[in-house]
């Protein structure tokens, strides 16, 4: 659906904000239910902003405007919140999941470089799986993973049907490793060593995997959630977050409203 889109934010375009990282020169706003096209145009004019991303099902806009540092972003948020038709105005927060090296011999790695492998051995699940399959015959389950992508070259996902939600025209990849780690816990086949997936162990080829690749910004995660819903996912996995102390809660609490 070309009406649902967002603009990824390169690392070099991210700035500190209340102990977080956010996208520079961006604001994310949610329009209230009364906002019409005239109200939307007035908001863009008042903020001198351009729409670079939009999620129409939930009235969310990603805006580009002149706000290159924390002080300017705070001013922009305050200005947007004062306008009629704006329900929420927040910076485009960057999530901070821990990465790992995507590797089929991952169990040989140690420390932070290691994905969940033998240290997350599904021993009890291995014993339960035959009984589960016998008593509850597997039916198709469509699981969407909203994360940093999937490194298919790990050879851990050969037996599962995979679909790239964000851009079906491009092959799946993962520059970070976190998405592959999370997806491994769900859907890895363990043929190349490493992780035995929870869902793939029980469901086998009844599992369908929908991968929504994001740039770890809140806007990207939100778009992945919307795409997963439109693709009729039965389950949506979102395993990202950001440390947020009292200093940042006031400025970012609007994201809770948007997610809900």
The radius of gyration computed from the alpha-carbon positions, rounded to a whole number of angstroms, is 20 Å
Q: Characterize the main sheet.
A: 4 strands, antiparallel
What number is the mean pLDDT? 83
- Given the structure, what is the number of helices? 8
Helices and strands, in order, run as EEEHEEHEHEEHHEHEHH
Structure overview:
With 260 residues, the chain is an alpha/beta fold. The protein has 8 helices and 10 strands. The protein has a 4-stranded antiparallel β-sheet, with helices on both faces. The radius of gyration is 20 Å and the shape is elongated. It starts with 13 loop residues before the first strand and ends with a helix. The model is unreliable at 117-123 (pLDDT under 50).
What is the gist of this entry?
The protein is an alpha/beta fold and 260 residues long. The protein has helices at residues 37-47, 70-81, 123-135, 178-187, 198-203, 218-230, 246-252, 254-259, and strands at 14-17, 20-23, 26-31, 50-55, 60-64, 86-90, 141-147, 161-164, 207-213, 235-238.
List the helices and strands and how they pair.
Elements: E1 14-17, E2 20-23, E3 26-31, H1 37-47, E4 50-55, E5 60-64, H2 70-81, E6 86-90, H3 123-135, E7 141-147, E8 161-164, H4 178-187, H5 198-203, E9 207-213, H6 218-230, E10 235-238, H7 246-252, H8 254-259
Parallel strand pairs: 7-9, 7-10, 8-9
Antiparallel strand pairs: 1-2, 3-5, 3-6, 4-5
């Amino acid at each position: 659906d070309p009406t649902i889109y967002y603009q990824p934010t390169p690392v070099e375009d991210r700035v500190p904000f209340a102990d977080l990282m956010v996208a520079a020169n961006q604001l994310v706003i949610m329009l209230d239910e009364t906002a019409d096209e005239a109200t939307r145009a007035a908001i863009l004019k008042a903020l001198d902003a351009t729409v670079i991303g939009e999620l129409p099902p939930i009235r969310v806009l990603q805006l580009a405007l002149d706000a290159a540092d924390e002080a300017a972003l705070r001013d922009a948020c305050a200005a947007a919140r004062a306008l009629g038709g704006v329900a929420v105005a927040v910076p485009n927060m960057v999530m901070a999941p821990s990465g790992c090296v995507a590797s089929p011999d991952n169990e040989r790695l140690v420390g932070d470089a290691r994905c969940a492998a033998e240290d997350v051995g599904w021993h009890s699940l291995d014993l339960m799986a035959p009984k589960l399959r016998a008593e509850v015959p597997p039916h198709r389950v469509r699981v969407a993973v909203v994360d940093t992508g999937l490194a298919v070259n790990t050879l851990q996902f050969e037996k599962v049907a995979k679909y790239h939600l964000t851009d079906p025209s491009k092959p799946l990849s993962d520059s970070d490793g976190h998405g592959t780690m999370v997806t491994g816990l769900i859907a890895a086949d363990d043929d190349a060593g490493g992780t035995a997936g929870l869902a793939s162990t029980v469901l086998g080829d009844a599992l369908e995997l929908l991968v929504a690749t994001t740039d770890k910004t809140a806007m990207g995660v939100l778009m992945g959630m919307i795409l997963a819903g439109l693709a009729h996912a039965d389950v949506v996995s979102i395993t990202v977050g950001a440390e947020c102390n009292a200093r940042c809660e006031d400025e970012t609490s609007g994201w809770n409203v948007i997610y809900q």
